[in-house]
Amino acid sequence: MTKRIFKKGDQKVLKAWAFYDWANSVYPLVISTAIFPIFYGSLFIESDYIEFLGINYKNTALIQHITSLVFLFLAFFIPILSGVADFLGNKKFFMKLFCYLGSISCMGLYFFNLENIYLGLGFYFFALFSFWASLVFYNSYLPDIALPKQQDRISALGYSYGYIGSVILLLFNLTMVMFPESFGLSNENNEGAIQAMRISFLLVGLWWAGFSQYTFYYLPENLNNVNKKDALKKSVIFSGFLELKEVWQILKMDISVKKFLVAFFTFSCALQTIILIATYFGDSEILWGETDKNIGLILSMLIIQLIAIFGAMLTAKVSDKIGNIRTLIILNLIWFVLCLVAYFVQYPIEFYFIAGFVGMVMGGTQALSRSTYSKLIPKTDNTCSYFSFYQMSMIISVVLGTFMSGVVDQLTGSLRNSIIVFAVIFILGAILLRDIKMKSI
Questions:
Q1: Among 1-5, 131-135, 173-177, 257-261, which is the least confidently predicted range?
Q2: Over the Cα atoms of the chain, what is R_g?
Q3: Average pLDDT of 187-191?
């Protein structure tokens, strides 16, 4: 078979790269954000508390602390894996590995129940771990395959693909949940809706693994052209740490990158945690009617996703006019206001209203943060190691954010009190962004 010739800036490669967002974004929407939190909450009919490892845990505090544990493991393993991928030039292999592990784990959630809580949380653990691990290698492709002037647009295109694809699958899942009898599922005592949610986990795994094949077909391999024979003579793990050490030495001298990572870590602590707990907040803190909670929560997440499509594109256009850093500062200030308003939200109509604004700024903040970092880092072959620092900042911020939120939830019995903490964090993020200077392209 003739080897495909890769040229930087190739539109087919860029679109195939962006399409991985279409494949994997069903996990954060359908499982992390929409269906799984509702499914998880439905298991706790008699009490919101469960005995876990000898601790009487509030259900939402437990899932947040399991999430913290996942990201703690990510913080340890991702630098090793990304260094290995750069050294051996096989980031595509690791991207595939975690794609398939994540897909299988998603399908394993079908068997989640309170009787086998440890097995169920194990599948949750590996699905979440694999999703974020695959993103390290996915994101690191951006500066390798796209010209600097293309990176904002392609990053936003990826998020837009992700929002559209995940919404399509969520709409199908929502139809199953609303009308289970139309799919041959019993609707007695809400059993049909619960079974529809379990089937949704199977569909997410199949979607993720299936649609990623288009991306894997076009993405180039061995971009840094490492000599494999020389690589095998050395300790791969040790070489990965050496690369990270070299990158850290450069980062210490690059003030702009270092300042950005500090600011990014700060506002990601609030941003990523809010994305992860939004549905749990809606489930436990909003005064829903007797029958409209499940549908209302899913509709709220749909509102966020649909508006986020336009938010990502709008933010890219605004950044072209006033610059990446100024745009990120404005986004942090908007998040601050949204947190203050969300603290007082009690009714569904108010929750829908907030969801719309969250969608507008969520997509833009994520897409612009990724492309801003890709512009700031040095032009080099070991982009995977540089992006491991980016991903590490996000990962450790989630550890801190979910741990804090879980502690507040466990001690006060309410997620609402975490919102004020996140508002303060967004203000701090805006302050830290002020003095960062972008490099000329």
A1: 1-5
A2: 21
A3: 72
Residues 257 and 377: beta-carbon distance below 8 Å: yes
Element of type H or E holding 252: helix 236-253
Q: How far apart are the first and last CA of the chain?
A: 38
Q: Per the structure block, which two tokens stand in for 141?
A: 């492709």
Q: What are the distances in angstroms from CA 393 to CA 133, 136, 324, 356?
A: 13, 12, 19, 27
Asked whether 364 and 312 are in contact (CB, 8 A), the reply is yes
Tell me the two tokens of residue 96: 């595939």
d(CA 201, CA 182): 19
Which two structure tokens, joined as six digits, stand for 45?
């009919």
Token duo for residue 394: 């996000």
Structure tokens at 325: 């850093």
Cα–Cα distance between 308 and 163 in angstroms, integer?
7
Cβ count near 239 (within 10 Å)? 17
- What would the pLDDT profile of 144-179 be if each residue is shown by its tens digit? 787 777 777 787 788 778 878 888 898 898 888 888
| Cβ 136 vs Cβ 98: under 8 Å | no
* Angle at 203 (CA atoms; ends 281, 65), nearest 5 degrees: 35
Q: Rounded to an integer, what distance in angstroms lies between the CA atom of residue 414 and that of residue 411?
A: 8
pLDDT band for 220, please (50, 70, 90 cuts): confident
3-state SS assignment for residue 8: coil
| Residue 366, token pair as written in the block | 């994520």
Measure the CA–CA gap between 167 and 136, rounded to whole angstroms.
23
- Judge contact between 402 and 221, C-beta under 8 A: no
* 71 touches 396 (CB < 8 A): yes
SS3 271: helix
pLDDT at 380: 64
At 228, the pLDDT band (50, 70, 90 cuts) reads very low
DSSP symbol at 415: S
Domains of the chain (ranges plus CATH)?
11-221+231-433 (1.20.1250.20)
Which residue do the tokens 């784990």 mark?
Answer: 105
Distance CA 107, CA 105 (A): 5
pTM for the model: 0.76
Q: What is the DSSP string of 126-171?
A: HHHHHHHHHHHHHHHTHHHHS-HHHHHHHHHHHHHHHHHHHHHHHH
